[in-house]
Every structure is written in C-alpha cells, then in structure tokens.
Description:
about 120 residues, Rossmann fold
Amino acid sequence: MKILIVDDEITVTQYLKLELEDCCQDLEVITENTGYEALNRLMQGDINLLLTDIAMPDMDGYELYSRAKEYDENLPIIMMTGFGYDPGHAIVKSRRDGLQDVLFKPFETQKLFDLIKKRVMGE
C-alpha cells in the first residue's frame, strides 16, 4: 500500500515516513513538499491514501483536496494542521466537500496509523 505525505516542512515528512514505515512493513510512504509535486505524484495512479498539510506555499490543503478528488473521488484523504478553528479555514471548506479526517498537530503517530487502517485497510 502506498501513502503520499505532503508537507512543506521536510522534517515533518521525513519523520512521518520513518514512523509509519516502522509501524507497518506493508506501507510504502512517498513524500512531497509542495502541492504541485503531490498532484504530479497522484497522477501516476498508484497512491492509496493522501495525507496532506493545510498550509503550503504553492497551494492550500483545500485546493489539493479538491484537485485530488477530481482525479480520484474515492481516494481517502487525511488533512493535518497546526491551526485552530476558523470558519473560513481550508478544513471547513473541505469538510463541506466530504473530508472526513483531520489531525491537529501535534498528534500521536498511533492516531494517524489508526486512521490509515480505518480508511485504507478497512479496520
């Protein structure tokens, strides 16, 4: 199973990659650091789940969410953010469009892994 992690902070993507691959040997974790790189990687068609940050310099999480869903409406997507609630926030717009899972930083890796199992492995 392939998971794509997108965050403009390289240390975040590297850390999550190490944690998830250590947690589950069946996972292949691919990382990108911009929304456009992530879209290009998604277009290759072999990603099973997208984990994306909200705030990135080239596009926000809502735009990436929308474009990913246009490409594959069944792709499970988890958003992560360090921001609190704001009615105009990308999470609010994404939830209106069907987003189910949001993680607020900092979060425990086990919580992320449980969401991945729920969305992709059906557990």
